[in-house]
Design goal:
Shape: elongated
Structural class: mainly beta
Radius of gyration: 13 Å
Number of strands: 6
Largest sheet: 3 strands, antiparallel
Order of helices and strands: EEHEEEE
Strand order of the largest sheet: 1-2-5
Number of helices: 1
């Protein structure tokens, strides 16, 4: 049975000066399914809306920069 990839868990952020270090847990083989290609990280300055793709990557972390100073950023993932 081929299931679509699941959503990565363990999304963590660490703030830097005008940047954020974002990491997440790797999916298991079962979680990746047969169709896994990449992790997709999205960012928004509003909770729950207006998310735009930041990066598509096979890595388990990303440095999101440059970011506007004194701005709250929200992140979500898909795979």
């Amino acid at each position: 049975m081929n299931l679509p990839p699941t959503i990565p868990a363990g999304l963590k952020t660490l703030e830097g000066i005008n940047k954020a270090f974002v990491s997440w847990n790797d999916l298991s083989s079962l979680g990746k399914g047969l169709d896994f290609q990449e992790y997709r990280l999205y960012r928004s300055t509003a909770a729950g809306t207006g998310f735009e793709r930041v990066v598509s990557t096979a890595a388990l972390a990303h440095v999101d920069k440059p970011l506007a100073p004194w701005t709250t950023n929200y992140y979500k993932m898909s795979s």
